[in-house]
Design a protein that fits this description.
The protein has two domains: about 50 residues, no CATH class; about 375 residues, Porin. About 10% of the residues lie in helices and about 45% in strands. The protein has a 16-stranded antiparallel beta barrel. Helix 1 crosses helix 2. The N terminus is likely disordered.
Amino acid sequence: MRKSSMGALVAAGLLIGGFSAGSASAADLGGNCCADLEERIAELEATTARKGNRKVSLTVSGWVGQQVMWWDDGYESNVYVGDLGATLSSHFKFTGQATIAPGWTAGYVLHVEVRNNNSLGITQDYYENGTNVADGVQLLQSFWFVKSEKLGKVGVGLQSQASDNTAILVDGSGSLVPANWVAFDYASFFIRNSASAVTTDGPQYIGVGGCFGGGVIGDCNGGTQNVVRYDSPTFGGFSVSASWGEDDMWDVAARYAGEHAGFKVAVAGAYSELTGGSNTPQFFDDTFEYFQVGAYIQHVPTGLFLYGAYGNAQYDIQTGDADTYYVKAGLRERWTHLGHTVVYGEYEKNESSGAFVQSTYATAPNADPTDSDFNLWGVGVVQEIDAAAMSMWLSYRNIEYSDNSGLDYEDFQYVKFGALINF
């Protein structure tokens, strides 16, 4: 008997032994017990998920990411240790596919996230009152797909919709995880003002820009959803996507990537609509609309790069909108044998009006402001370690917030050091 069958043989033996111990007589294997046992072993091997069964492959991948963050909100400072925020947290993913016919495949994705001190939920008083930060194991994606080399791919189930992270993913600098336009690090922190030191009242950064459907400030409609999604084949660097999901969401996206005269170029844009996506009663019958576009260009010989993104959020009925601008520039160069080093500077601005401005303290001269302004600037360095499929970073950010409530808000600043290792 083949050595590769030993594991299955042991399993079969235990299984048969279990039945024997629980009954007066052993299972009837027929006249040719060895042939029947071989057949049962083959069945076990065909359904054992080691590298997939004989028809469908299995690949396990993922990463572990953690960081240390020092912050100062103008009244208080502290140091937290935690993960990188929902969708960027440590995770593992099972993927696989099988060939149906020449040019046709079917496959699956099962994506599980393991959150630890989720940075999207941490506030100033987290360690005082044990605020729930949604730690634990979360299902991020679970879907099957059918793909044709000529016609494209259709997926059904819990997955990223066509507009999820559209503007972000064109960033090829190597600094996408530590520096992007989503408030992964500080979303739930309360915005301090000069009139009060209370931390559990008033506006939070998660309310800036009024995103719905996932995402904070940038990348609205950025969470995975139960959708049917179509992705076209890539023609000359161009591709398109579309998806429709539950209650009720639809979106479209277009992408391009290529290299010309020593420059890498990537551009992507998307439009999405989400109806009934708010838990605010007056928004129940309204439709949230979001447009986003991102572009990246890098001069390959020198490593100089520039990345920018723009997003616009609005409602059909409610007045006002929110505009978000993000730009990052820097240098990606290989200075050591470890891997590329990325040095960058970043700037982000959000201007919101009307329905997209969050209410502030009830004691403020204007408790319900109608305009707000958010500004972020930062610098950082990323070191890639090729031998370990790893990236390490150190960065600094300063955030300013203002509105027409009549209050003066304190700046929020933080330094973070972290790493992510792929497997």
